[in-house]
């Protein structure tokens, strides 16, 4: 296990819920912390409705994709998304949003030096320090390469910068879990914690809707299945 991790499940069971995370259905702009499970019958029905409205198509070619096409990581100047131009880069914004017991670098109210993360993907508590930075990675829920293949290749640079820095599309998560995901859609990868999978599908759908992107048919079927569809 990577240095800095505590493998014990977070309080309240799996899914990294902790005491701060909120349901994606109650967090449509991504400014509130974490990713709490979607559990009630009524909320799971809402989740299925959101997913059912997604358009589907096949993934296009990856030709021409590069991370820099979405701007440098992590810019504070992606106008049109929450937290833009607040003096902190996007990575530190979402670490501060989701972390507990956050400590900043001496003399800074921006750069996060250490925190505790209730990881939504594994249900583990990660005691993170900047010294072991890769123990926590920032996941693009809807991966940028996926976005590129589903239409972002034809977007303006400004729009690509927005989706790359939109807190709706960003979660600080367990580094190895994020590395295993790579640029997969839900049909190929889901969070190891089963309790969070419907919430993950909702967040994926929220990003797709906001940016008018389709998903593949296998991804849509998988997403519906996570929420009882």
UniProtKB/TrEMBL annotation:
The GmrSD restriction endonucleases C-terminal domain, residue ranges: 89-225
One protein family per Pfam: GmrSD_C
UniProt keyword annotations, A-Z: Endonuclease, Hydrolase, Nuclease
Region (Disordered): 1-43
Superkingdom in the source lineage: Bacteria
GO molecular function, one term: endonuclease activity
Protein name as annotated: HNH endonuclease
């Amino acid at each position: 296990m990577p240095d800095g991790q505590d493998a014990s499940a977070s309080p309240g069971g799996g899914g990294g819920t902790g005491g701060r995370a909120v349901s994606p259905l109650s967090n449509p702009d991504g400014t509130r912390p974490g990713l709490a499970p979607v559990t009630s019958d009524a909320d799971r029905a809402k989740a299925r409705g959101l997913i059912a409205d997604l358009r589907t198509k096949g993934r296009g070619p990856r030709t021409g994709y590069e991370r820099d096409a979405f701007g440098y990581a992590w810019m504070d100047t992606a106008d049109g998304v929450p937290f833009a131009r607040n003096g902190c880069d996007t990575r530190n914004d979402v670490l501060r949003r989701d972390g507990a017991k956050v400590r900043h670098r001496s003399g800074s109210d921006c750069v996060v030096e250490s925190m505790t993360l209730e990881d939504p993907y594994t249900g583990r508590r990660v005691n993170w320090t900047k010294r072991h930075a890769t123990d926590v990675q920032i996941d693009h829920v809807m991966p940028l390469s996926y976005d590129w293949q589903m239409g972002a290749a034809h977007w303006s640079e400004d729009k690509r910068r927005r989706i790359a820095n939109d807190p709706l599309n960003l979660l600080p998560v367990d580094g190895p879990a994020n590395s295993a995901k790579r640029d997969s859609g839900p049909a190929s990868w889901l969070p190891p914690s089963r309790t969070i999978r419907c919430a993950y599908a909702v967040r994926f759908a929220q990003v797709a809707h906001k940016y008018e992107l389709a998903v593949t048919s296998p991804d849509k079927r998988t997403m519906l299945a996570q929420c009882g569809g």
